[in-house]
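STRUCTURE REQUEST FORM
Protein name: Retrotransposon-like family member retr-1
Source organism: Paramuricea clavata
Requested output: structure tokens
Priority: standard
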Amino acid sequence: MAQITAPLRQLLEKNVEWVWDQEQRQAFTTLKAAIVDPPVLKFFDQKQSVCLSVDASSKGMGAVLLQNDRPVAYASKALTSCQQNYSQIEKEMLAIVYGCEHFHQYLYGQREVIVESDHKPLEAILKKSIHQAPLRLQRMILRLKPYAIKVKYTPGSQLLIADALSRSQMSAQINDPSDEFEVNVLEWGQMSETMFEKLVEETKKDAELQQLHRVVMDGWPPTKPETPLEIRPYWSYRDEISGYDGLMFKGDRVIVPHVLRPEMLDRIHAAHLGIEKCKARARGSVFWPGMNSAIDEMVSECRTCLQFQRRNQREPLMPQEIPERPWSTVAADIFYYKGRDYLLVVDYFSKYPEVTRINHKNSEAVILAMKEMFARHGIPEKIIADNMPFNSLRCRDFAREWEIEVVTSSLHYPRSNGLVERNVQTIKRLLKKSNDSKQDAFLALLEFRNSPISGMEQSPAELLMSRKLRAKLPIPKHLLKPKSQPINDVRQRLRVRQLRQKAAYDQGTKQLSSLQPNESVRIRQGGVWNPAVVVEQHKSPRSYIVATSNGTQLRRNRQHLMPTNEPPMNITPPMEPVGEEERCSGIAPSTVRSSVRSPVIFPSTEIEEEHVRTPLGRSTRIRRAPSRLIENI
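Status: completed
Returned output:
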């Protein structure tokens, strides 16, 4: 080739007269023949694989069809003035479209066509779904659908032919899809003219987006460290970013300038939907780096959403430890039936229920009833009960005198004393059925005590008294004799029964995170979540002391507390100072110890009967404080 072109190259030397004579004409004719003959140019062989090498410059684009690294055909074309404003990724994609359509007769129907391009993002973007590409690229990708192409990244230093063709292009006009595209943007966007103008104006003022626009138009650097620092967050999306009509897009989503992002967050969360729905809503139209984190933070701190949040998920069951012997740990509660109050005490070991009617729901009546029960079965070591009235001053004095440890449950969380709550339902049903059938309720209670516990052979009476109780059913006399029960075997069966109940209960539960002092939370009150702050963790499991906005301190189970990302709350102190023992309702900041032993006693609530009211001569209804006032008490 050098020998053929020697006469022509002599004309380019200095001090040589430019003369076109027979020798130059012969060299030019020979050179043209050499270009179209093998090995410079070969005939197309449909049995061989096909490779299309393309490249785009700022003014044109070039393509060469290769088989076995030998050229079959060349093509080049100049870009229109509109296409010269395309970003570099769009120019490179347009070069692929031009090469495929120009060599349509060679490429259509091929099983696979390798396309060599020095723009690496195209290799990834053509593997994604078409809707993830920018709109202009979507149109170009659709034009490539008739061809089975596979884009392969090749460094520009190896695309010599295509690069030369793109820089020495032929002037020509090709169809310009930009007009139709602009209409598509306006129709798809469905944004008001005011919002469109605001986005364009703020995009021009946003230094980060302007830097991003320059990089998109000129081409991304080959590596992330070479990318300007302010636009590195966009590096992972570089193959999807484009600019149109003064706006920047990621695929078909507009990139929002910094100034407008708070407004967009308000619009996204206008309906106060949850985090996932807000994210899904935003993903359909807008984008900026860190948008998901911003939505997480906004929704998690939204006061309206926090106030009307759903209840916490149930936590796994935390069963009470099985006592070592009968009547050592009992549960107590007061229930109401047909205008009368009843005290129910259930043994945690034997499940034996003691029920008695009380005239008043005050501490004196409760203490008198418990003394009667304890005189029959002995004094238990521990009583698990609700706050009212078992946490009153007189009940504390009674517990100290009788050497009993009292453990109270959190307000509004009867589940922590589940044994007695379940027995309340059972005893109420017995009373209702006995009343409806005109049967003796005491006989029904006797039969219940004499019936075997589910999953076990023994009845509550056998576990407590070591014998069956004589009832109306015929029974041999020897079965009524006391019979010692194997305590260890009974405890093991009770434990198996307890684990079975726990496994059934724990389905669909979740362990809630623990809370720390001074942590902002929301407390469940009246069906809504109100702001509060954690004061300290109570000694009872999953129980905390929290302070509300008016300074009131309450004890609540973790089930009724929801941690938030809200700033610390300003707590208004109470109008009048209160003592240490009165600082919260039903809370035990300190332990009162007996001189004989060390039972755990909890402080009193504010309600304490100073004297028993003398009953009126006429009949009257029982007056109860509204439930909304009990909490304040």
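Reviewer notes: The CA atoms of residues 254 and 286 lie 5 Å apart. Residues 173-184, 575-620, 628-633 have pLDDT under 50 and may be disordered.
Form closed.
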